[in-house]
Every structure is written in structure tokens, then in C-alpha cells.
């Protein structure tokens, strides 16, 4: 069972349209997903089964800077960097 992240408009725009570049060195970022355990809960309202729930969040890693950036961090930096 996985829960989708709730996207802000700027995060979504960044994910879909922006080149994923490191804010520091402008190098290419490697996409990976981090799974966070959210505890146990009901999967769907229709299902009475309790299962483990995980939240998947997009992260981007720069090998040069050895730095991991979350999508929300990148979207914020991106918005500051260029207008629109
Ligand atoms: Zn970098």
C-alpha cells in the first residue's frame, strides 16, 4: 500500500517541466524515491484490511556535491532562481 504525495503547483511544475539540475553546481541530478513508513492503516474505505502504509517522495541526488534535494526544496530554489 502506498500513499501518493500531495503536490503543490510549483512542485508539480518543476517535476514535469524543469530540467533537474543541481542548484549549486548545475550538474545533472539523479532521481530516486524515498519510502517513508507511515504506520498501519486502512488501505481504502472499501477495504477492511489493515496494512502497512508508505509514502513515496521524490528526491534528487547530486554526485558532485554529494547532496540530496527533495522535490519541494528544488521547486522553491527554482522559483527563486528564475521568474516564472
Ligand atoms: Zn551539485
Structural write-up:
The relative contact order is 0.29. It contains 2 helices and 4 strands. Strands 1, 2, 3 and 4 form a 4-stranded mixed sheet that branches. The protein has one domain. The chain is an alpha+beta fold. 24% of the residues lie in helices and 38% in strands. The structure holds zinc ion (ZN). The site of zinc ion (ZN) has 7 residues, from loops.
Short descriptors:
alpha+beta, 4-stranded mixed sheet, 38% strand, 2 helices, 84 residues, binds zinc ion
Sequence-ordered SSE layout with sheet pairings:
Blueprint: E1 2-3, H1 9-17, E2 30-42, E3 50-62, E4 67-70, H2 71-81
Parallel strand pairs: 1-3
Antiparallel strand pairs: 2-3, 3-4
The structure holds zinc ion.
Order of helices and strands: EHEEEH
Which cofactor or ligand species appear?
A: zinc ion
Distance between the termini: 36 Å
Strand content: 35-45%
| Largest beta-sheet characterization | 4 strands, mixed
Number of helices: 2
Number of domains: 1
Mean pLDDT: 86
* Percent of residues in helices: 10-25%
Instruction: Indicate the multimeric state.
Output: single chain
Low-confidence stretches: none
Structural class computed from helices and strand pairing: alpha+beta
Q: What's the number of extended β-strand segments?
A: 4
The rounded Rg comes to 16 Å
Give the overall form.
elongated
Kindly summarize this structure in a few lines.
The protein has 84 residues and is of the alpha+beta class.
Amino acid at each position: 500500500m502506498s500513499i501518493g504525495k500531495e503536490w503543490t503547483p510549483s512542485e508539480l511544475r518543476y517535476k514535469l517541466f524543469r530540467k533537474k539540475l543541481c542548484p549549486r553546481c548545475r550538474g545533472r541530478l539523479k532521481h530516486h524515491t524515498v519510502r517513508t513508513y507511515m504506520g498501519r492503516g486502512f488501505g481504502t474505505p472499501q477495504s477492511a484490511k489493515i496494512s502497512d502504509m508508505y509514502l513515496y517522495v521524490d528526491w534528487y541526488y547530486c554526485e558532485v556535491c554529494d547532496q540530496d534535494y527533495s522535490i519541494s526544496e528544488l521547486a522553491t530554489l527554482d522559483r527563486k532562481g528564475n521568474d516564472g
